[in-house]
């Protein structure tokens, strides 16, 4: 492979990808920035906010050298190779496209956009600019999922019959949170439902045929879906049953049910880097499997850099994000119409 074009490939001296962080969101400061700083492939060069004082405070807190008081200034910096976008969902499309036009590679938080049409625009813009676009589903980069896939391929649990998953948390008291702004792309399907949906597609290696979803909507939270429960139908009678929520007890689980056994992931999406385990249950035994102790966010950054440097193809094509958005679109439409939606 040859490196993607972009404005620059990597720092010529250190060969590290130079990152600019677009915003001071909690996920950026709590997970992504430290992960890049711990990686062998990247360095966080600058952080931008729409407020210079906020940018400087966040940059100082995270030990980032340069702070910008606008996203435009960050994109104009010739010493930035790639940007990470953790902005509210409704801003993803605009700033990913502007970053691509500035020659920057783009790692964008999930969900990639507000709908599949916007996501396709982002994919097309990055393709025209010759830059790498990736959706930040960090869990997919953890070797735990490679081990799960190996067990499925081995036939140990037989043929997959069903997948069950839940990703819920309770943050309902924080009514000013961006997750509770409907016009900003708030709601549990966008925020956490996207994980079970992407995981089922990943594990089954195919796209769904139909969905049926019911939601609990809260007037206290700008009428976003605070909870959603759904059935996602795949070929061969296999289905994902899932629920997701932002006003429920914390759960972070996934179960793959086979004809001869099942795989249980007690840490499906938020994976404990100190104890990444899952369980395989068959008629003869139950065994615990421990995956390598790695930071999924660091693995995500390393995979991203390897693509930019031409060392490997993307593990997950940008078009995959469009497919996942198409599924989210169908889930939202099903909830709105209270009907089964075919894809």
TrEMBL record:
UniProt keywords (A-Z) are: Oxidoreductase
Listed Pfam families = GFO_IDH_MocA, GFO_IDH_MocA_C3
All residue ranges annotated as the Gfo/Idh/MocA-like oxidoreductase N-terminal domain in the record:
17-134
| Record GO terms (molecular function) | nucleotide binding; oxidoreductase activity
- Matching InterPro entries: Gfo/Idh/MocA-like_OxRdtase_N (IPR000683), Gfo/Idh/MocA_domain (IPR050984), GFO_IDH_MocA-like_dom (IPR055170), NAD(P)-bd_dom_sf (IPR036291)
Q: Which family does it belong to?
A: Belongs to the Gfo/Idh/MocA family.
Kindly give the PANTHER family that the UniProt entry links to this protein.
OXIDOREDUCTASES, TRANS-1,2-DIHYDROBENZENE-1,2-DIOL DEHYDROGENASE
Q: What is this protein called?
A: Gfo/Idh/MocA family oxidoreductase
The species is Paenibacillus sambharensis
């Amino acid at each position: 492979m040859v490196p993607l074009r972009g404005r620059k490939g990597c720092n010529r001296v250190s060969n590290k990808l130079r990152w600019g962080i677009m915003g001071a969101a909690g996920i950026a400061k709590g997970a992504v920035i430290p992960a890049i700083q711990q990686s062998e492939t990247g360095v966080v060069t600058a952080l931008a906010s729409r407020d210079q004082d906020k940018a400087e405070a966040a940059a100082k807190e995270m030990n980032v050298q340069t702070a910008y008081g606008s996203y435009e200034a960050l994109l104009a910096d010739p010493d930035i190779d790639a940007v990470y976008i953790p902005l509210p969902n409704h801003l993803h499309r605009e700033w990913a496209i502007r970053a691509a036009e500035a020659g920057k590679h783009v790692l964008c938080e999930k969900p990639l956009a507000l709908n599949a049409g916007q996501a396709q625009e982002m994919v097309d813009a990055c393709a025209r600019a010759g830059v790498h676009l990736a959706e930040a589903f960090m869990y997919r980069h953890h070797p735990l999922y490679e081990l799960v896939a190996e067990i499925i391929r081995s036939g140990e649990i037989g043929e997959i019959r069903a997948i069950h998953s839940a990703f819920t948390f309770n943050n309902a008291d924080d009514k000013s949170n961006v997750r509770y702004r409907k016009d900003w792309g708030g709601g549990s399907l966008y925020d956490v439902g996207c994980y079970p949906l992407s995981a089922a597609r990943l594990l089954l290696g195919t796209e769904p045929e139909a969905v049926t979803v019911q939601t609990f909507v809260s007037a206290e939270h700008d009428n976003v879906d605070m909870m959603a429960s759904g059935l996602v139908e795949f070929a061969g009678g296999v289905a994902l049953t899932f629920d997701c929520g932002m006003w429920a007890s914390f759960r972070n689980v996934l179960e793959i049910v086979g004809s001869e056994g099942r795989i249980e992931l007690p840490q499906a999406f938020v994976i404990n880097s100190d104890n990444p385990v899952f369980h395989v249950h068959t008629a003869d035994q139950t065994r615990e499997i421990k995956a390598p102790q790695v930071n999924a966010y660091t693995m995500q950054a390393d995979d991203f850099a390897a693509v930019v440097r031409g060392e490997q193809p993307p593990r997950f094509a940008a078009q995959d994000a469009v497919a996942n958005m198409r599924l989210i679109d169908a889930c939202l439409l099903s909830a709105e119409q209270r009907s089964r939606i075919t894809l």
